[in-house]
Amino acid sequence: MLHLLRSNPAFFYLFLSQFLGAFNDNFFKNALIMFITFKLSQSPEQTGLLITLAAGLFILPFFLFSSLAGQLADRYTKTELIKKINLAEVLVMLLGAMSLLNQQIELLLMTLFLMGTQSTFFGPLKYSVLPEMLDKQSLMQGNALFSGSTFVAILLGSILGAVGILIEDGVQIMAVSLIVVSILGYGLSLLISPTVAQNKDLQVNVNIFKSTWKTIALCRPYQSAFFAVLAISWFWFLGALLLSQIPAFVKYDLKADDSVVVAFLSVFTMGIALGSAMVTRWFKGQIVLNRHGLFLGGMSFCLGLIVLLIDIGSVAQINNQEALMDLTTFLTVWPMNAVLLLFLLIAILGGAYIVPLYTLLQTQTPLKLRARMVAVNNIMNALFMVLSSVLIMIGYALSLSLMTMLLLLAVFNVLVAFMVQHTQKNLNSLNR
Fold first, then answer.
1. Phi-psi category of 169—alpha, beta or left, where left has phi over 0 and alpha has psi -120 to 50?
2. Total-model pTM
3. Is residue 393 part of a domain?
4. Is the peptide bond between 335 and the residue preceding it cis, with omega within 30 degrees of 0?
5. Interior/surface letters 149-175, b for 16+ CB within 10 angstroms, e for the rest
6. Do the beta carbons of residue 277 and residue 144 sit within 8 Å?
7. Alpha carbon of 351 to those of 38, 258, 272: distances in Å?
């Protein structure tokens, strides 16, 4: 796959630019969460409220502006829009740096909303422009590089942001870093070779609510692409639920400390990247969908094993310990260390699951509609992630344990796997 970066300069600069953008988003977001938790808030209730508000403000633009972003990406030259949006990121990061230095929570939250808005407009561009840069044989490899590198950027940004903000002079270091990374991303975007506008006759509807429903209705008839949207969104439902619960899972179920949290986040990222790379080798660049139900089923099997290991493994001896285990100790405790390997396998299956679906979305959507289909995908992804958060909150309100909720998730995921497998067979027969 790496030969794409060497042989295609336009793809190489786009790849680096989107990597830095994903890094900066999570760099700031996690720095803000740690800043709120340890510096700005005065009580657990205030901390929970502000963190929930921050998460909501970041994801809100995906609901509000994705349809407009898709229309603009289809109407105008994508590479020119990429440059403008990267320039906008520089301005947003200047505001973010200023708000960090002033420690003004209102400006910090406003910056987070603007970052979400910038990401909303960038998303349809980066995925819809790929088929214009890569041939059909290389498209899945390009998607694999994008998916794997995005998770790596998320991990690096999350860890460095969370750690960096709390060190001595961390606020000043963070402020400078945000600006430097955004300027570097903008500079790289200027090197991307220009493409051409694909739908110059498109009339852009600026009514964000009306255009959202209209865009979804417009994309719905393309059954294969819309199936990919729903299947990808289910992955984000699973991913958001698992990632959001890792800290609580590690602390209360595995009795381990924050170093083990970082290990789980790292393993998830590496697993997604590994699965993305492996699936391109397995399928040799072809879109093969008859195994996606099996991928989901494998994830459910791993979740069930995790619950079983925690339930019947060494819970008794872990509950007797007073201090949380560090990573070194955790890796020596069987079968708790096996949970980490199972989590890696879940991520590998997730990476293998998602890459062909992104490729299907791109290849089964007409060129003039492609960016709007990516926008619909972003809308549905955001909706499914919010739904996962709501269901987790309902579960806790009903006094369900996290292990019970994970077991229910595994069972429901098996049902989704059967639905995915059945839908794939129908679509394959239609496309013959």
1. left
2. 0.78
3. yes
4. yes
5. bbbbbbbbbbbbbbebbeeeebbeebb
6. yes
7. 34, 25, 4
In this structure, what CATH number is given to the domain that contains residue 401? 1.20.1250
Widest distance between CA atoms in the chain: 69
49 lies in the same domain as 93 = yes
Residue range(s) defining the domain that contains residue 431? 222-432
Residue 199 lies in a domain: no
How is residue 251 annotated by DSSP? I
DSSP conformation letters of 1-35 = -HHHHHH-HHHHHHHHHHHHHHHHHHHHHHHHHHH
Same domain flag for 19 and 134:
yes
Backbone angles phi, psi at 314, to 5 degrees: -115, 40
Q: How many structural domains does the chain have?
A: 2
Instruction: Label residues 4-31 b or e (16+ Cβ within 10 Å = b).
Output: beeebebbbbbbbbbbbbbbbbbbbbbb
pLDDT in tens, 127-149: 888 888 888 778 878 888 887 78
Instruction: Kindly report, residue by residue over 321-376, the tens digit of the pLDDT.
Output: 567 778 888 888 777 788 899 999 999 999 888 888 888 888 888 878 888 888 88
Q: Is 210 within a domain?
A: no
Tokens representing residue 145 in the block: 């590089």
Residues 305, 229 share a domain: yes
From the CB of residue 337, how many other CB atoms can be counted at a distance below 10 Å? 14
